[in-house]
Amino acid sequence: ISGNGGEDWRRIESFPGVPEMTYVADLTASVHDEETVYAGFNNHKQGDFRPYLLKSVDRGATWTSIAGDLPRGHVVWTVVEDHLDPELLFVGTEFGLFFTRDGGDHWIQLEGNMPTIAVRDLEIQRRENDLVAATFGRGFVILDDYSPLREVSDEVLASEGWLFPVKDAWMYQQSSPLGWGEKAAQGDSLFTAPNPPFGAVFTYYLAQAVESRRELRRKREQEQLDRDESIAYPSWDELRLEDRDVEPEVLLVVRDAANRVVRQVPGPTSAGFHRVAWDLRYPAADPINQPAEPDPWGPPPSGPMATPGTYSVQLTLKVDGRAKALGSPKSFQTTPLGLATLEAEDQLAVLTFQRQVGTLQRAVMGTAELARERARQLELAAAAASQTPGIEDGQTEVIRALQRRLFDIESVLWGDRTIARRSEPTLPGLVQRVDRAVGGFWSSSAPTETHRREYSVAVTMFTQLLASFEQFEDDFAALQETLDEQGAPWTPGRGLPEWQPE
């Protein structure tokens, strides 16, 4: 060690608790105190797999171990100090990454998506509070914005749940140069690493997992097994409660400056630290009947982007259908990044128009789904009529007439499919016009006149369609009532069958 810029050097002969000739893996000077230095040692080549981590507050004259409760086998490779909190340290070991909030008395492993791998070097990107770990064999791993770790305290760990301060979010439209998805159709030969989550990122802590009645019972039974105790079979009432139980939820409830709910973002229910992101958008208007597997070639359903401004988020538990707020809400700002080439002069006016389009989209897509259901129900009604003895021949014609009318309704919704199926040009249907309006400016800064014209045409088409569909619904209900009166087999779309004891 040198105390005069390298003109004179003195050898530190020994370190307390560290065997002689142990390899010095890392030496890090404090960014808070010029007298403080950290040293990590690695003696695994001598069959010694204990963690050695020391701290000096007098430029190396004396040393104190801060290895604390680092697990045996986690030989130390590197150490780094937070640039704002001197008590927050990070250590890379042979099998992972640890942090401490008390200067080294107690260490907690950072897991999540962190692989079990040797962490050979650590660096902090101070502007974004990112921790960059260089691993042996797995490349670089980045923990984005670790600033919530500065807030970890005994109060936080003792609480039922805790929401950490939220970093202000940049607003912009995400680029997809390769097509939608992480790799689009580029294949596994194209390496990509995930970007940080877009939008406002929420970090929260749960002391215990939020579990259902069945999960709690099974945990109790496992504890009884571990103690070699007998297990009583649950009563029928207990099992009924489990079968009717509503799955517990963790929700991050986002509100605007007027305290109106903008979005409810679901989060993991397990114990520990979690992080979820709000994409800065309102909920999608798509019907809730989407397939379990999303379309890999198209964007997921989304609503209009919120306006820039002040928002707040509240950590909320829902158990047995009842909501419970944990802690106090945290406020944050959303700010445009300023890269828009078609920037809207009035963001509120854009949002108002987007909400109008979203309301139309919800109604049109709901109508389209109902048309699909009615088409299937009419097919089943025709089959039921054919199996009903003595049914009037005219009733079959009623069903066929309704199917023809529904075919005309579907042509308005989706365009002339007879022409489209033969690869000939045809006018777009109502659904396509709404999709173009939504897809065209949902992901841009402002609607164009074309978007507004598509919306205007769609409103006119839908107004006329609703009148036809409402009359169809009346005639469809009359058909179902007639089939029920004539004893036809029950089909979807009909109400509770009428029956009287004989």
Major sheet attributes: 5 strands, mixed
Large-scale geometry: elongated
Rounded radius of gyration (Å) = 32 Å
Helix content: 25-40%
Work out the strand percent: 15-25%
- Overall average pLDDT: 88
Question: Which regions have little confidence, pLDDT < 50, spanning 5+ residues?
Answer: none
In total, how many beta strands? 19
By secondary-structure content and strand pairing, the structural class works out as alpha+beta
Distance from N terminus to C terminus (CA atoms, Å) equals 103 Å
By DSSP (H or I, 4+ residues per run), the number of helices equals 8
The SSE order reads EEEEEEEEEEEHEEEHHEEEEEHHHHH
Strand order of the largest sheet: 13-19-18-15-16
Highlighted features:
502 residues, alpha+beta, five-stranded mixed sheet, four-stranded antiparallel sheet
Helix and strand topology:
Blueprint: E1 23-29, E2 37-42, E3 52-56, E4 64-65, E5 76-81, E6 89-93, E7 96-100, E8 108-109, E9 119-125, E10 130-135, E11 140-143, H1 154-158, E12 161-163, E13 169-171, E14 200-206, H2 213-226, H3 236-243, E15 249-255, E16 261-267, E17 272-278, E18 309-319, E19 322-336, H4 347-386, H5 393-414, H6 417-420, H7 430-441, H8 449-485
Parallel strand pairs: 13-19
Antiparallel strand pairs: 1-2, 2-3, 3-4, 5-6, 6-7, 7-8, 9-10, 10-11, 12-14, 14-17, 15-16, 15-18, 18-19
Helix pairs in contact: 4-5, 4-7, 4-8, 5-8, 7-8
